[in-house]
Amino acid sequence: MSPEFTAPFALEWSSELARTVVRVLSGLVDTHGDNPIRAPYHFAVVSRILAGTADTELVETTDTIAAALKLGKIQWARLVGRIGGVALRAVSPVVSDGERTALLRFLEVWSHTPMADRTARLRRGATRTSTTSIRTGTGAVVVLGLAYSGGAPRPFVDRAFGPDDPPTLGEVDHVAEAPLVWGDADQLTRLIASVRENGPIRWDRKAVDFLAEAIGVPRGTAALLLAGALIRSTGGGEFPTVHQRKRLGLTVDEVESAAAKEFRGLDYDTRLDLLASALPEDPEILWEPDGLHRAAERIVPVWHQMFGRRPAVPVTTLTAVDSLHWNTPAGELSSWLAEPHNEPLLTDDLPTWVNDYGNGCNPRAEWVRFTAIVESVTAGLRWAYAELPAGDPVRDGVPQARDLLLRRLDNPGLLLRSPARHLDSDTVTGRFGTSPYLRLAEHDADFVDDGLTIIRIDRAGKSELFFRPAELDKDERTDHLDRAVTDHLDTDLARVRRLRSGAAQALAQRIRANALPQGDYETNPAASAPDLVREAADELGSTTDAATLYLQLLALREPTDHNVRTWNHWSRTRHKKAGTELLDRKLVVHGSRARANRTLFLPGEWIEYDWLGSGSPREKFKDNLTAAAETADCPVSFDWWLLPARFAFAWNNRPTS
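The chain above was modelled as a monomer; its predicted structure follows.
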């Protein structure tokens, strides 16, 4: 295209269509404060300025240009060079017909602008200026958005008409080339024609699974990416509808997790960079049977360049591991557990010190990340042992993750934090002495340090407690620490002890022993405790399948129908046959109970909620079983027992009537 190019300002664009464009782009670009009715006018004016024709073919004065530019503030400068992300959204079968119409109209207008010209030298940036636009013989520059008080940077787009740089407006905060990755006029025209002729492309769940495993994210994140970043973001946006979630095969929890974790770290520019190259050079390929898979393949190298490669983990594991830590993406969690030797915080000691502001320890970012690793490895050890099949890379890596973490916990320079009971000055002095905490600067608080515990009390009387894991459980100082912390299992103090426990060591050794065939689960007693299954079958006079199912119903918290079939590699028919045997022997009852997700239950009382109003619904027998297992002589949590021992204990204490 030449500088004499003219934008299609005369094309129809209703206010309703404009509103739709602004709304559906909200997951990709910041549209806060946009005037959707005027946005097309704004877009057309900017296009003509960059084309070099604005003052001769559209408006008569610079005042009119300035007025037009102030009418719309959509930050479509981010789309320059990256329009492929919008195109992927437009062809998605998840997008409604109304939204698709709006996006295709937007792409059609875009295809007639300099932004769809591969020869145009365009840049994106931000500048501090009160001027709106300028055009000279060397190029043009247009600022998008209003000027704010304080001289905050305003985004701009510029274009060079020749070899020289374009003019500038005020102080340039930053600027970068915006080469066209995908989406020249020909590609956009062909894509638009293909959509209008063939409709949206076919959704392919295998492509979702491929992308999830290739970049190390749960299915929810991969599906939302391939749908064109169909997710709300930190700057607002949308949430998939019931119909969209059903089409994607996602639950509300999966979408919420993607929003709170992986997508939380993907700002607008990152999303667009990821999706800009997703479309093939020939857009018609998208309508072939493997079209979405081809798009997924193109996203993978861009992701790896941005975030690095993650260990190869099955998509089912990635989706399951997502629950281990509320604030950490599943791919990162999987990396910690499957390849702990690649995590610097697990291979190198972290020196820490209490910061000045009552907000944990410094270095802040590394310390927060390390505490997340402590939580994840502790929960991950028991979870991976019980819930993942033998040979899974996350399960196989957890013992090494524990070993490395134990070494880091022996670092005398490491501090962790634990919730503290209310502690007045006299109590602190009586228990922890008066030795000051050696610190780097003066603090607006009082500190004492007995070598194990550091107590910080600010002027409002609020206390904060830190401890050195390397000194824990060595002498009487530990008694003082235990009396000062809140009695809660979900603390770093409890986690350190759990990681160092004999129970944790037994779980790690069991995984390392490769006691199960590849693909089998510890939760399947036929694989983990075959002698017990044969004993139970003989005593019950049943098949080994029925005995296996009975042991699972006795010992496991959530023997849902789906879980049982997964653990045992059973079909529905085989599962039903085993259950029928138990029903015939009156060992179980058939029914339907809220949130149970199964139809067979042990006879007796049923607990819908525990006293905290949480926890999975279960038979009262299981609470009694846990109480009998966790005694003063055996204080280890029943959930941390090896599963063969749990099955045996449940069998020996089974209901007698």
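The chain is about 45% helix and 10% strand.
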